[in-house]
């Protein structure tokens, strides 16, 4: 179902928890703040996901905080998969060595793993944790469990911009499918640390010269650069980018039960926590949630737009 700006919905992004075992200085916290809320129960998550199908949602992305901290993660993946979604997860990777195979068996298709530095000290400065080795282990376990395409997320900033060539080489050597070079957002902790922001233009110029093919993804119209090695480098430039917002096909389910229509907007939400808490029969709740989706689609708008 299209919004007023002709944008379809395809992705439901579910924040499973605000808890995280890292403390990255630029964390956008999915635009929800960080009140350490532990998240909606499984049955509510599945009910909202079920309702979303009527509005074109095909893909579910599990996020946080750190989604692997949810004890019922396997059940959540199983439930969403059985509703017919493609389920993927964005994670810092630390707990993947013990979870990757179980997640694959439960129906998780693929993972995006954050790896913001290859230098141990820089990694520690960025994430607050001396866990580079564990994350590298996590990445290998995702590959071994065939959670493919395995995508690496590298948020470019003043601390790590000197590592771009290295992260490309590393991804190629390890057989990573996609590397996402991501611009910092002035959202969440990114607001106070935005002085570390780097624009990605020079990197894109380099990729243009060194790729064999470029395609544009439907999602956010993100450019994808195909390198000789087979590695795909996707450039994610969301800040002040009307093209990115024009291709936005997602809606978020927050930790406290809101349909959040934009990462940047705290006002553009439809609160469904009341519906989820009532004792109404499941079918009635489902209908009310569907009505809420209609309202959310009605208020959805690109955050960055072209103005005349
Ligand atoms: N402005 C904006 N940026 C987003 C949005 N979703 C993701 N991003 C940016 O993209 C980064 C990576 O997102 P991921 O959760 O790894 O996955 P994805 O890129 O959305 O999706 P896939 O490539 O399909 O896995 C986020 O940390 C944000 O910086 C969004 O809705 N709006
Ligand atoms: S960016 Fe991801 S890993 Fe880092 S603190 Fe935020 S949720 Fe945790
Ligand atoms: S409208 Fe733009 S800023 Fe808002 S969620 Fe979509 S892509 Fe992100």
TrEMBL record:
InterPro entries assigned: Aldolase_TIM, Elp3/MiaA/NifB-like_rSAM, MoaA-like, MoaA_arc, MoaA_NifB_PqqE_Fe-S-bd_CS, MoaA_twitch, MoCo_biosynth_MoaA/MoaC, rSAM
Domain Radical SAM core: 4-213
Pathway assigned to this chain's UniProt record: Cofactor biosynthesis; molybdopterin biosynthesis
Cofactor(s) required, per the database record: [4Fe-4S] cluster
Record keyword Nucleotide-binding present: yes
Cofactor note: Binds 2 [4Fe-4S] clusters. Binds 1 [4Fe-4S] cluster coordinated with 3 cysteines and an exchangeable S-adenosyl-L-methionine and 1 [4Fe-4S] cluster coordinated with 3 cysteines and the GTP-derived substrate.
Binding site for [4Fe-4S] cluster 2: 245, 248, 262
Function comment: Catalyzes the cyclization of GTP to (8S)-3',8-cyclo-7,8-dihydroguanosine 5'-triphosphate.
Protein name: Probable GTP 3',8-cyclase
Source species of the chain: Acidianus hospitalis (strain W1)
Gene encoding the protein: moaA
């Amino acid at each position: 179902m299209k919004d007023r700006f002709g944008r379809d919905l395809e992705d439901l992004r579910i924040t499973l928890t605000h808890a995280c075992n890292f403390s990255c200085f630029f964390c956008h916290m999915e635009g929800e703040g960080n009140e350490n809320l532990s998240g909606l129960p499984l049955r509510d998550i599945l009910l909202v996901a079920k309702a979303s199908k009527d509005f074109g949602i095909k893909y579910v992305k599990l996020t946080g905080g750190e989604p692997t901290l949810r004890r019922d993660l396997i059940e959540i993946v199983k439930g969403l998969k059985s509703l017919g979604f493609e389920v993927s997860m964005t994670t810092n990777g630390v707990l993947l060595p013990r979870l990757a195979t179980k997640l694959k068996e439960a129906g998780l298709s693929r993972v995006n793993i954050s790896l913001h530095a290859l230098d141990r000290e820089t990694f520690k400065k960025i994430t607050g944790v001396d866990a580079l080795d564990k994350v590298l282990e996590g990445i290998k376990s995702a590959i071994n469990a065939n959670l493919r395409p395995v995508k690496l997320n590298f948020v470019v900033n003043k601390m790590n911009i000197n590592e771009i060539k290295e992260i490309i080489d590393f991804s190629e050597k390890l057989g990573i499918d996609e590397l996402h070079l991501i611009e910092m957002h002035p959202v969440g902790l990114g607001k106070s640390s935005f002085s570390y922001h780097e624009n990605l233009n020079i990197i894109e110029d380099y990729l243009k010269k060194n790729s064999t093919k470029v395609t544009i993804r439907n999602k956010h119209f993100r450019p994808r650069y195909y390198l000789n090695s087979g590695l795909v480098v996707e450039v994610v430039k969301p800040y002040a980018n009307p093209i990115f917002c024009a291709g936005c096909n997602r809606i978020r389910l927050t930790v406290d039960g809101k349909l959040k229509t934009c990462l940047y907007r705290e006002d553009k939400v439809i609160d469904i926590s009341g519906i989820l808490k009532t004792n109404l029969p499941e079918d009635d709740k489902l209908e009310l949630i569907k009505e809420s989706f209609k309202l959310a689609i009605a208020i959805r708008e690109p955050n960055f737009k072209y103005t005349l």
